[in-house]
Structure formats: C-alpha cells, structure tokens
Sequence to fold (344 residues):
Amino acid sequence: MILDNSFVLPQKPVILTGDRPTGPLHLGHYAGSLQNRVTFQEEYKQFVLIADMQALTDNMGNYAKVRENVVEVAMDYLAVGIDPEKSTIFIQSKVPELAELTVLFLNLVSVARLERNPTVKEEIRLRGFERDIPAGFLSYPVSQAADIAAFKARYVPVGEDQLPMIEQTNEIVRRMNRSLGRDVLVESEAIVPKVGRLPGIDGQAKMSKSLGNGIVLSASEDDISKAVKQMFTDPGHLRVEDPGQVEGNVVFTYLDAFDQDVAFVEDLKQRYRHGGLADSIVKRRLEDCLQAMLKPIRNRRAALESDRAAVLEMLRKHSLIAREEAAKTLSEVRREIGLDYYFL
Ligand code: TRP
Fold:
C-alpha cells in the first residue's frame, strides 16, 4: 500500500466505564469489573471514570468522603494493573463538558421516564428518599448518559444492575441525533461480565461497605484470614460426614470466581456434595488462593501510597486528555445546535 495523506490507522473501539468514589474497592469489583479492564485495555481505547459528581448526587455534605476516595479508587485501579500507559483514568468533575452535555440531555428526558428507571427506583427505596428525592439523584442516569456519549463509547462494561442506564443512554443519544439531524453521537452496548455479582462473605446478595461483609483489595493478610473463617457455608452441613450444599455456599462461589484450577474445584465440589469434606479444608484452599491473589495488589498499593504525588499527577494529566476528548464531542453538538456563536 502506498501511504498518502488520506490513510488513517483504524481506531480502536472506545470503552468507557467507571465507579463512584464512595469507598475502597473490594473483591466484588475485582471479579466483576477490574479484571476485565486489565484485559480490555490491550484491545480498546479505554477510559476509566472516577464518578465524583455522580457520587455527590447522594453525598451532598459528605464532601471529604468523596474527595478522599477519588485518590483511593485511583490507587486501587493502578494496584490491580490498570495501566496508565494504556488506559485513561480521569476524574468526572475535571471534565466540565460532561456537566454541560448533561444539561442539554435533561431536555430530552421526561421526569416520568426517570422515575421508571428500575435501578434508580430501587436505589431511592434503599436510601429512603420517599418524596424528597434530590433532582440530581433522580437524573443521574442522564449525567451517566453524558459520560458515555461524550466519549462516543462503543462499549460500556457494567454490572447487570446498570443495564437500564445503557438503555436510557441510547434513548437519549437517538433523540439527540434526531434533533440535530445528524448522527453526532454514537449508541453503545453494555458488556456484562459472565460472573454474576459476588455475594458478601455473609451470603447476602451484595458485597458492600455499609454491610461490612466485603473483603477490600487492600485487606491485610489477617483481614483475609478472618473473613474466610467467618464466611457463610452450608448451614445444613453440621458434621463433616454430612453431604454438603455447594450452591449458595459462599466459599465455593468465591472459588469459582478466583481459583484458576477449575478441575480441582470441581473435585472439591463433588467430595463436598458427597459428604466427608470439612468446611475448614475448603476454606483453607480459598484462603491460600485469596492470599496469593491479593498480596501483589497490596504491595503495589503500599508503594503507590508512599508516592501519592505521582498518582495525583497521573490523574491531572489523564483528566486533561479526557477533557480534550469530551470537548471535541461537545463542540460538535454545540455547532449543530448553533450554540457556537461564531460571530461573537
Ligand atoms: N453508575 C456507575 C456505578 O455506580 C458509575 C458510573 C458513572 C459509570 N458513570 C458511568 C459506569 C459511565 C459506566 C459508564 O458504579
């Protein structure tokens, strides 16, 4: 092929994903999303957003919590192997274009539609807002749509609970494009991980900081050991020789998620079901597995903690890169609407 100036290298598809900085990341995040991000960054142009503005939608007044966790989450990202040479890790509030796009998008969504979003509905119930729903909270799916659309993300890796967000994003994108008369924005597709949500160590459906049933990525050797000892197994498995239940048994769920030796785990399951295999043996296997997995993460994190300035500098640089990208989309939208006021 003769290279002329019409030749453009094919662009890698864009991925956008992120987390609210409201607490340290835990094993649930690792199984459900962090591991995938480490893989995706090889093949995609990946943006990882630390959604501080979204975190504020139900944390007004808790500013210190959100602010401190921005850096904590960034360190968790780096510790698990999200590579700043391959991914752009940025802070949502450092990209004000996202807020601007949100304001435009808000005109394309009805309040009734927002109230129908099942994820938001459930979160409103859990937070006990009742009639006093902050408007910012009700409309955070719109701000999330702006996060995704501003980067023209093709794929959005998210947990199953976030599917309504992607659906709503695409609705907004289609309306925006229709109103502009040109497909400025692109629709995106969710990528949902094969492993479902990891339960808490107590067997509850969700691992969460407020429930105190998680294992954070920075957990010490001792924390891990204690957590595994407390872990919910089969309450009917009273004596070693009794047949045990594998389904709903958290220790096996975690082994499925993290033990690389699938055949070994299958064999353990069979012996457990049959009877004669003690919980303590299965727990020992899981503990060894988690200790081996989390040790390098903890060590990398400790190194990052002793050089926070480098982490802050990375966030600053990456937020600028992200801002440039979002600003391109914003200026296209502004131009189509006629908000560029070139004559001023
Ligand atoms: N809502 C996501 C969460 O609670 C965080 C988030 C914000 C996000 N903006 C996003 C995820 C855009 C994917 C794409 O974890």
Summary: The radius of gyration is 23 Å. The chain has two domains: 14-198+308-337, 221-303. Residues 220 and 298 are 8 Å apart (CA to CA). Strands lie at 14-19, 45-50, 87-91, 155-157, 189-191.
